[in-house]
From TrEMBL:
Pathway: Amino-acid biosynthesis; L-homocysteine biosynthesis; L-homocysteine from S-adenosyl-L-homocysteine: step 1/1. GO terms for cellular component: cytosol. One of its GO terms (molecular function) is adenosylhomocysteinase activity. The lineage of its organism: Bacteria, Bacillati, Cyanobacteriota, Cyanophyceae, Chroococcidiopsidales. It comes from Chroococcidiopsis thermalis (strain PCC 7203). This is Adenosylhomocysteinase. Pfam families: AdoHcyase, AdoHcyase_NAD. It catalyses: S-adenosyl-L-homocysteine + H2O = L-homocysteine + adenosine. Binds 1 NAD(+) per subunit. Keywords: Cytoplasm, Hydrolase, NAD, One-carbon metabolism. The keyword Mitochondrion does not apply.
């Protein structure tokens, strides 16, 4: 495909990076058979013909396949980054040059540029918004009320974004349908657990080249992302301590074989700290004060608020880059604390994000959630909606089929039994 760049609006680092981006996008596609099948169907059925769509996502090789599938389905799509450090510039270039998709994303863009790109996305007057953290939806509600009438609905794939949508619903400002992609079983069981678990440690190792075996790793939060991170850290030989506020999740962590402590007690013991809570200032001033010299701190939650970097900077006599995406804060006390990826998503700031095999299911959910919104235009009530169970199961079926795995089916006798209340012991 040849794209006339002079006729396409975009803002990326360098179109010359497209060749490398195309190669990497093709490599990721080897492990995304579910989304490939959905793209092929979309190309035939054109479910998004006449639909203006905005996707605010991490601009990675996997996201590229989602964007390509949506365009194949007829969408008039614009892509922006959902995090200033999560863009892969070569991928952004290939989407522009090879696929003619308007992309506004540059790795390392400042907050002003990021916010400008959110405004550019809303200038597209979207009918569908794919959000990752709910920044676009929040800006629409706060600043562009007149455009809500154009909106069929939105989809959201992060825990952080769902928390924000729930707050919007509570405040009475979520006046349109939003599909909770994050809670689909084929999303959080796999993306959050296996994807975050592996890619978080990948980011830490790439940034520091540190040996995890024998280290004490503190995992803040034991949701699905925390479970995966703790599991993988233990698998690499680390001694894992979990911090939690939820007593049920804390018990689960204990039953899974992890030590559970308050952060105040864990802080002096940790060599590496990983936050995955979705909340603010999980690691604070008093925790920095008691950390070991050389402690490494990073975040794998969506926003860069989980680590109180402002207080850390106030304690620092010197801040210097010691490796790519790795800063050492030399404290007035003489100790040092190392921060990876500016406290942003470590798996995307310092690595490549989740493996494509798990994103295959996550983005299949996104694609089918968009189709669900379009097919049910005007029928869904305002508020949060779950992915239909049959869609979730179809994605799992397609994934198993692609992996060459078969499962049992119920016999007629079994179907009768589970649908009857009269049969007992």
């Amino acid at each position: 495909m040849t794209v006339a760049l002079d006729k396409l609006k975009y803002e990326i680092k360098d179109p010359a990076l497209a060749t490398l981006g195309k190669q990497r996008i093709e490599w990721a596609g080897r492990e995304m058979p579910v989304l490939r099948q959905i793209r092929d169907r979309f190309a035939q059925e054109k479910p998004f013909a006449g639909i203006r769509l905005v996707a605010c996502c991490h601009v990675t090789t996997e996201t590229a396949h989602l964007a390509i599938a949506l365009k194949a389905g007829g969408a008039d799509a614009v892509l922006i980054a959902s995090n200033p450090l999560s863009t892969q510039d070569d991928v952004a270039a290939s989407l522009v040059v090879d696929h003619g998709i308007p992309v506004f994303a540059i790795k390392g863009e400042d907050n002003a540029t990021y916010n400008k790109h959110v405004q550019i996305a809303l200038d597209h007057r979207p009918n569908i918004i794919i959000d990752d953290g709910s920044d676009v939806v929040a800006t629409l509600i706060q600043e562009r009320q007149n455009q809500i009438a154009d909106l069929i609905g939105t989809t959201e794939e992060t825990t952080t974004g769902i928390v924000r949508l729930q707050a919007m619903l509570k405040d009475g400002v979520l006046t349109f349908p939003a599909v909770n992609v994050n809670d689909a079983d084929t999303k959080h069981f796999f993306d959050n657990r296996y994807g975050t678990g592996q890619s978080t440690l990948d980011g830490i190792v790439r940034a520091t080249n540190i040996l995890l075996a024998g280290k004490t790793v503190i995992v803040a939060g034991y949701g699905w992302c925390g479970k995966g991170t703790a599991l993988r850290a233990r698998g690499m030989g680390a001694n894992v301590i979990v911090t939690e506020i939820d007593p049920i999740k804390a018990i689960e962590a204990v039953m899974d074989g992890f030590r559970v402590l308050p952060m105040a007690e864990a802080a002096p013991q940790g060599d590496i700290f990983i936050t995955v809570t979705g909340n603010k200032h999980v690691i604070r001033s008093e925790h920095f004060d008691v950390m070991k010299d050389g402690a490494i701190v990073c975040n794998s939650g969506h926003f860069d608020i989980e680590i109180d970097l402002k207080s850390l900077k106030s304690k620092a006599a010197e801040v210097k880059n010691v490796r790519p995406f790795t800063e050492q804060y030399k404290l007035n006390s003489g100790k040092s604390v190392v921060v990876i990826g500016e406290g942003r998503l470590v798996n995307l700031a310092a690595a490549e994000g989740h493996p494509s095999a798990v994103m295959d299911m996550s983005f299949a959910n996104q694609a089918m959630a968009c189709e669900y919104l379009v097919k049910n235009k005007g029928k869904l009530a305002p508020g949060l909606h779950s992915i239909p169970v049959e869609v979730d199961q179809e994605i799992a079926r397609l994934k198993l089929q692609a992996m060459g795995i078969s499962v049992d089916t119920l016999t007629p006798e079994q179907v009768e039994y589970i649908n009857s209340w009269t049969s007992g012991t």
